[in-house]
Amino acid sequence: MLQQFAKILNYDVTVTPFIYLGLPIGGCHKRGAFWSGVVERVKARLSRWKGRYLSLAGRICLIKFVFSSVLLFFMSLFKMPSVVEEKIVRIQRNFLWDWGSEGRKIAWASWKKVCEPREIEGLGIIDLRIFNLALLGKWIWRLGLDKGGLWKEIF
Is pLDDT of 134 > 80? Predict the structure, then answer.
């Protein structure tokens, strides 16, 4: 019956999960498999060969760009599991410090210091856990502040 209605209305029948605007719809956001596409995109954009040809400032800029282009959309809608956060932070750390030498890598500062703002002598890379909670808190704030809106009525 579903197929007949879909044929009459000229629609396709899909099963969940499916991808819409780059976001898996119908999956469980608490599982690592839901975030695997995001982790792979971060890994591809912060590949090791790119770091070999950039200065430290260039690597920092690329880490910030990847955060703003890939992670921001997902993190504003879902709470990131700690396992996924650790994977992404490891990719970021390796990209920042592991940029071409084959031996043991030297981290010139702790990751906590790297994530501090530039005003207090950090490198200004955003802490994923804190920023994820801030983005989710923004939705709660907007829910209490907005007088109307379709998204609020649906929610």
Answer: yes
d(CA 150, CA 155): 9
Task: Provide CB contacts within 8 A for 5, sequence distance 6+.
Answer: none
Quick one: tokens of 7?
A: 């044929």
Q: What is the pLDDT of residue 103?
A: 63
SS3 29: coil
Q: Which range is least confidently modeled, 24-28, 62-66, 127-131?
A: 24-28
Cα-Cα-Cα-Cα dihedral sign, residues 149, 21, 74, 24: positive
Q: Which amino acid is at 65?
A: F
- Alpha helix positions (H), 21-119: 32-45, 48-52, 56-66, 72-75, 82-97, 111-114
Domain boundaries, the chain: 2-154
**Contact by Cβ (8 Å): 33, 27:** yes
DSSP state for residue 120 in the 8-state scheme? G
Query: What is the tens place of the pLDDT at every residue in 43-88?
Result: 888 887 777 788 888 888 988 888 877 888 888 888 999 999 999 9
| Tokens linked to 23 | 């976001």
Neighbours of 55 (CB within 10 A): 10
